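go over whats below:
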Amino acid sequence: MLSRVAISAVSAAAPCLKNAALLAPGALQTKRIFHTTQPSFAPVPPLPEYGGKVRLGVIPEEFFQFLYPKTGVTGPYVLGTGLILYFLSKEIYVITPETFSGLAVLLLMVYGIKKYGAACADFIDKLNEQKIAQLEEVKQASIKQIEKAIDTEKAQQALVHKRHYLFDVQRNNIAMALEVTYRARLHNVYKEVKNRLDYHISVQNMLQRKEQEHMIDWVEERVVQSISAQQEKETIAKCITDLKMLAKKAQAQPVM
């Protein structure tokens, strides 16, 4: 029955669709609504874990609560029953073999849901819990990684804030290196000056020694030249006499 209604509706709307095919694409696009406002960044409310309460498997509880103040407790049931009877009496809905097929499929679905619905729901919930656990593990791992990255970034920022200490140490090291170089050069200058002074002192000492040796040699030479042969003989005789007297005195002294 429903397939027949759909076919008749499509056949009735076919001329309109043929006329609509002649329109330009731009004419159809002018009727589109473009979003010109800024997107909302409000948090999306979470989806409910379980569906709302229903009656007869498909009718929501809000429908009955809406009709209670106007029709009473039996009003929704009377309204539904009256509509079904109205459709059947006016042949708006005609009972056909497809109706019984639909009822059979519906009863089979209800039986399957009543029989295996709880087990299937538990199995699906278990799979959902496993997936949620896996996603939670991935989430926690991502959170730990991000927290580690944040801690690393904070440590790097702390090092950046303390970089003036490093600069001070580098300045002190450079100043110490310059001071060491300056003192090494002063020491080199001192050594060079000392070597020059030692050289001049050595030269002066050598000149003095040579002058003294020359003076001694000259005096000895003059003294030797001034002594005559007779004086030399007398001096030698006097020395021999002194030596003999000394030998006699040495012999006269008792041996201890």
